[in-house]
Amino acid sequence: GRFITPYGINFDLGPSGFTWIYDVTDYQMYLKGVVDLAAHNTQELIDLKFAFIEGVPPRDVLSRQPIWSDFKSYSYANLDNDVNLQSIDVTLSDSSEMYKIKTRFTGHGHNGSVNCCEWDSKDHMISVDGVERFNWEIWEETACGDNPNISQGGTWPYAREGWCPGDLVKEYDHELTPYVTPGSIVTFDYDIEDVPLNDQAQGNGNYIVAMDLISYSAPNFQNDAAIIDVLNPNSWEYYSKWNPSCSNPRVILQNTGEQDLTSCIIRIWISYGDFIDYEWTGNLKFLEKEVVEIQITDDSWWADYSGQQTFTARVMNVQGVQDMDEYVNNNEISTKFEAPSYIS
């Protein structure tokens, strides 16, 4: 994982600091026995904790391998001219049934007329056996300005190519399974949007790149859904741009079963028994997510009779059938929250 340190200039995270969270499930095989950890920056004091969650995942992680290299910087010109990240053959594990390419890219440099590659968006592409299968952008249009660390100095709010000061570098997952066969030899090739002919100086910019091949078992469940996060109400400082909140609650629903998720009920409450049941319909493929906003029509629902300041969301009636959900341990999530001032 990568993190970009905040821009300083009298910036202070306070005595308790700030918490960022990574999901490192795809790298769990490295967290066994004696582990060496390294942080490559000495500007900040870092406390690192791992939370091991016991249970059954949507699919088992079997292996991870870099497709080209673990983590390197390449010039934009060399990427465009195929000097780096050339076509490569990879043998897939024959004991796995599903595969994914996980990517982390950041653009850097102030070159050419657009200050490439920090300040200009480029298309990134991966071909599988000669066919372009993935085409994506990493441009952070609004995420930098949405960063809750609003007291940073300098140009921190402005859009950038794949990164924001004081934030995690986002990962992009590309599901490879539909295009390959277990145990086969697969040819991968990376390409990038061409350096403009009339602005060749852009090629002096660079990208820091990591691309991992993750191999998995088949899905562990046919019909399963999970509530994986609450955007509001939530007292976690990472969501402080939206909290404290008396707006409609927003939760993240994920399909964690192999079959398409087309309907469910999301039940929410603050005081137990004062439930709101939201009937969700849609079509989520395996591991797809959706932010679900649940409308509150009665302001009194926010009353916290127990005084616990806790919001809870639970997914029920997956596919419209009671007890269809095959794994209950991911059905419910609770968050502490700070209530805004309320005048009746």
What keywords describe this structure?
five-stranded antiparallel sheet; 344 residues
Helix/strand layout:
Elements: E1 3-4, E2 61-66, E3 72-75, H1 76-80, E4 88-91, E5 98-108, E6 110-111, E7 116-117, E8 124-128, E9 131-136, E10 139-140, H2 143-146, E11 160-161, E12 167-168, E13 172-175, E14 185-192, E15 206-216, E16 225-232, E17 250-255, E18 261-269, E19 276-284, E20 289-293, E21 310-316, E22 332-336
Antiparallel strand pairs: 1-12, 2-15, 3-15, 4-14, 5-13, 5-15, 6-7, 8-9, 8-14, 10-11, 16-17, 17-20, 18-19, 18-21, 21-22
Give a written overview of the molecule.
It is a single chain. This protein starts with a strand and ends in an 8-residue tail after the last strand. 3% of the residues lie in helices and 35% in strands. It is an all-beta fold and 344 residues long. It contains two helices and 22 strands. It is globular. A hairpin with a 4-residue loop joins strand 6 (110-111) and strand 7 (116-117). The mean pLDDT is 94.
